[in-house]
Amino acid sequence: MKGLLVAAAVCAGLFVLNALFVGALVPGVAMPPYFLQVLCLAGINITLAVSLNLINGFTGQFSIGHAGFMAIGAYASAYFTVTAGDRLRAILGFLPSALQESAVLLSALSIGALLAAVAGFFVGVPSLRLRGDYLAIVTLGFGEIIRVVIESLDAVGGARGFAGIPKLANFFWIYLFAAATILVVYRIVHSSFGRTLVAIREDEVAAEAMGVHTTRAKVISFVVSSAMAGVAGGLFAHYLMYIHPKSFTFLRSFEIIIMIVIGGLGSISGSVLGAVLFIGLTEGLRQFAQYRMVLFSLLLIVLMIVRPQGILGHKEFVTFLTKRRRSIGGAPGTQEGA
Amino acid sequence: MSILKLSGVTMRFGGLVAVNGLDLGLASGQLYGLIGPNGAGKTTVFNVITGVYAPTSGEILFEGNPIGGERCGRITRRGVARTFQNIRLFGEMSVLDNVKVAFDCRQATTLTTAVLRTPAHRAEEERVDRESRELLKIFKLDHLSTERAKNLPYGSQRRLEIARAMATAPRLLLLDEPAAGMNPHESNELMDLIRWVRDRFGMAILLVEHNMKVVMGICETVHVLDYGSTIAVGPPAAIQRDPKVIEAYLGGA
């Protein structure tokens, strides 16, 4: 009951903020479009980072193909909206148009999430049955395969990119799904299932010996993470209205990895912070033009020397402030853990 | 009735025969020691029983059911738990969470109930929390429950490993060199602990150990392996006088 009230309050709050930012609440007051776009992209990156942290940070299985699942979600949901969106609107003709649009977006996102989850299952089952770095190799290859396949698919624009996607996502939807992702990952991590995931990261042989079905746990974690990346991709497509295979190269996957490493592997609030910092830095350094990436790399190197475990390490923001130790989700391979 | 029975178990790694036609039987409630010089195949026997390796040939019966070649996790859920020669705790997790993970193998909650936080899930979490704390108290680790496992002193880590194994509710416990690296005082405490665990929970314990004082002090039956084959089985006093055993350990004249 309390949970529902909180959810409703979050929805209402985001709704009001959204109206305020686009200038519909107070006449003459609106957020500059550039800032609003940066804010929205940050929201999508929060979803991507938190979901990747579930598999990389908490389960300890290194995936470098998150952009591939994002691409599947983006293309599948965009294709649904473009080809079947009008039909769905006609069926729901009795509803107000705002609700119709929401229904189209939610259906599109569900399809994107579902397909990304299915892809995650088929990538995960063979590679997660083994211990070690196989997942990294397989996901790296998978991400590139997806991109090449999309480039040759004429139905979604191939190498020209997929244009003409209606703008259904906005600040409200993006942050609603970011909040939902954080909630779901938080609850997974703070449950018996989450404990088994962290145990697998800490010592897979011992986890198996304690009766944990390690393969199943790893696959579930990977599939959930992929589905969330699919949702993020769908939001990305419906926000920018244009997607291109080049948006989903392995560089994109590495960007998400950088976000979770900056914030701290095994910290949900760290991933949020990492995503915001990453976007803030890449945008803030724009004024330095050609030196932008040099400065960015320098900052990363400095951070990794000063705090190799990421800004928050394995702690959550609240416990980081109060200096209390929370054991769940300690970071793997940190200096102290080595 | 025997709780564990190995008949003709052989484990080959390529040309190397690590365990050769091993016969072994454990009655429930028995403290059984497995000893032998380095490389005799003791840990391999453990790994075959717990499902880390599938035996090349032979049969392993646990409570009458064949378990040879089953997955590790499944054998644990059947009621066989183990500790490791080189401690394998979940280092970054708290002492309490280490034990909770082992409890989880008997839990009914799923991903959906965890995300939705259903009342059943919460009740289950509370039960696990309570039972884990009780178990820690039994093993005198309750004051360390929030400490990260890797920060514990060596002796406490060994105790925690046994506590974690107990949390899976085993009927057969396999201890792989629990006294390794312990001083005489700690190994004395360990002997009391092992005996006490057996009496309190009434389980069978299979013990691999190099510390002869521990083995001879607590085991009712001692089984000596050399080069993968049995050279003697019997009560400690008889084993200590067995010429074959003395030869295996000290070399022939």
Please, could you describe this protein's structure?
The complex is a heterodimer of chains A (338) and B (253). Chain A is mainly alpha-helical and 338 residues long. Chain A has helices at 2-22, 33-58, 66-91, 97-128, 134-151, 171-189, 192-202, 204-209, 214-240, 250-263, 268-284, 292-306, 317-322. Chain A is built from 13 helices and no strands. Chain A is globular, with a radius of gyration of 20 Å. Chain A starts with a helix and ends in a 16-residue tail after the last helix. Chain B has 2 domains: 1-79 and 170-253, P-loop containing nucleotide triphosphate hydrolases (Rossmann fold, 3-Layer(aba) Sandwich), CATH 3.40.50; 90-163, no CATH class. Chain B contains 10 helices and 10 strands. Helices cover 41% and strands 25% of the residues of chain B. In chain B, helix 7 (184-201) links the parallel strand 7 (172-176) and strand 8. The longest helix of chain B has 20 residues, at 119-138. Classes of the chains: A mainly alpha (338), B alpha/beta (253). Chain A binds chain B through residues 3, 184, 187-188, 191-196, 198-199, 202-203, 205-214, 220, 224, 314, 325, 327-328, 330-332, 337, and chain B through 50, 52, 71-73, 76-77, 81-82, 84, 88-94, 97, 100-102, 104-107, 109-111, 114-115, 117, 121, 124-125, 128, 146, 148, 150, 164-165, 167-168.
Compute the number of helices of chain A: 13
N to C succession of SSEs of chain B: EEEHEEHEHHHHEHEHEEHH
Instruction: For the largest sheet of chain B, list the strands in their spatial order.
Output: 6-7-8-3-9-10
CATH topology of the largest domain in chain B: Rossmann fold
Number of helices of chain B: 10
| Main beta sheet of chain B | 6 strands, mixed
Tell me the span between the first and last alpha carbons of chain A. Answer: 44 Å
Distance between the termini of chain B: 41 Å
Q: Oligomeric form of this entry?
A: heterodimer
Q: Can you tell me the overall shape of chain B?
A: globular
Q: Which two chains share the most extensive interface? A: A-B, 34 and 42 residues
Helix content of chain B: 40-55%
* CATH top level assignment of the largest domain in chain B: Alpha Beta
CATH class annotation of chain A: Mainly Alpha
The count of β-strands of chain A is 0
Helix content of chain A: over 70%
